[in-house]
Amino acid sequence: MSRRAVITGATGLIGQALSAHLRAAGWSVQGVSRSAPDAIRWDLAKGTIDGAAFEGVDAVVHLAGESVAGRWSEDKKRRIMESRVKGTTLIAKTLAKLQRPPSVLVSASATGYYGDRGGQHLTEEAGPGEGFLAEVCVAWEGSAAPAADAGIRVVHPRIGIVMAREGGALGAMKLPFKMGVGGKIGSGEQLMSWVHVDDVVRMIAFAIERAELSGAFNAVAPAPISNVAFTKTLGKVLSRPTFLPLPGAMAKLAMGEAADEMLLSSTGAVPAVLESLGFEWRYPELRAALKAALD
Questions:
Q1: CA–centroid distance for 58 within its chain
Q2: Domain CATH for 163
Q3: What is the DSSP letter of 167?
Q4: pLDDT single digits (tens) 65-117
Q5: What CA dihedral angle connects 234, 235, 236 and 240, to 10 degrees?
Q6: To 5 degrees, how large is the angle CA 59–CA 283–CA 156?
Q7: Range of the domain at 269
Q8: Quick one: pLDDT at residue 250?
Q9: How far apart are CA 159 and CA 12, in angstroms?
């Protein structure tokens, strides 16, 4: 009998890839949705979910949440925070009440937890930083406490900037770079914690299987890279020039607060936990990751 996994956000970038990966490994996978056929029903606005459908599930992966992309209005920020806190709280409390709960809840987080930390290389032992995204991540991770308190192993992958063929950060970068108008952002010195989508999926599968892994881990490639080095590498992969920088002031004018935290912030997360457990990256180097995502 195949093992069962439930995934929220199953139609998203990571969710789709993870669903395919688990099914290929023999898992039965079910999504969570307000309306999709064959999915477990939930309604975040009403705070309702079909809890009985989770009985006997082996693993739950919680990826759902409002996108952080775009300019942040106060309403957008509220949706970003509430979608994560309300969704995670609902999932965690539901699992805590089950007669046959899953052995593990993988509840996503992000490297935004660390905030703008200059040139520091940050292991999972580093505390939270400052700013809106850091506040979101702290509240997001904390919302899974009911599941942990009920004895369920809870894991938080702090996911970096995802390199993928469709969507994600790379999807937004491709067009300007292909047109020859790409370049560094601001000073270019800010560190970027990146990861290929295939490795994110493999990290989540790894977290499901490894009973000794609990709490937060940095779901990133082995080494962060400066924005200017990232820019040069992407230009080389696309065979395009990268001499038109985006000044920080222009980024702020276009995106406001989001530019400070998503484009100009320096977050050098390193995957100390995964390295200690012997995880092997498929794409440890940026050039190979970009080529795989763009070919």
A1: 22
A2: 3.40.50.720
A3: S
A4: 999 998 999 999 999 999 999 999 999 999 999 999 999 999 999 999 999 99
A5: 150
A6: 30
A7: 4-294
A8: 84
A9: 14
Q: Is the Cβ–Cβ distance between 4 and 27 less than 8 Å? A: yes
Query: Which amino acid type is present at position 199?
Result: D
Three-state SS at 159: strand
Distances (CA, A) of 193 to 1, 114, 183, 222, 228: 39, 11, 18, 9, 13
Q: Residue 167 phi/psi, 5° resolution?
A: 75, -170
Alpha helical stretches, state H, the chain? 13-24, 74-96, 132-142, 145-149, 168-178, 197-209, 227-238, 248-255, 257-262, 272-276, 286-294
Confidence label for 251 from pLDDT (cuts 50, 70 and 90):
confident
Closest CA to 274 of 211, 203, 197, 223: 203
What the block records as the tokens of 7 is 């995934």
- The per-type count for the chain, helices as H runs and strands as E runs, is 11, 15
Sign of CA dihedral 21, 22, 28, 29: negative
* Integer Cα distance of 38 and 220 in angstroms: 32
Whose tokens are 């660390």? That residue is 114
Q: How many of the other CB atoms lie within 10 Å of CB of 278?
A: 8
Show the tokens assigned to 208.
Answer: 């499901």
Provide the domain count of the chain: 1
The closest of 129, 139, 134, 137 to 157, measured between CA atoms, is 137
Q: Tokens at residue 254, please?
A: 């276009």
- Sequence letter at residue 210: R
The answer, yes or no, to whether residue 119 has pLDDT greater than 80, is: yes
Give 254-283 pLDDT, tens digit per residue.
889 999 999 999 999 999 999 999 999 999
Residue with tokens 């064959």: 38
Q: Does the pLDDT value for residue 162 go beyond 90?
A: yes
Beta bridge partners of 291: none
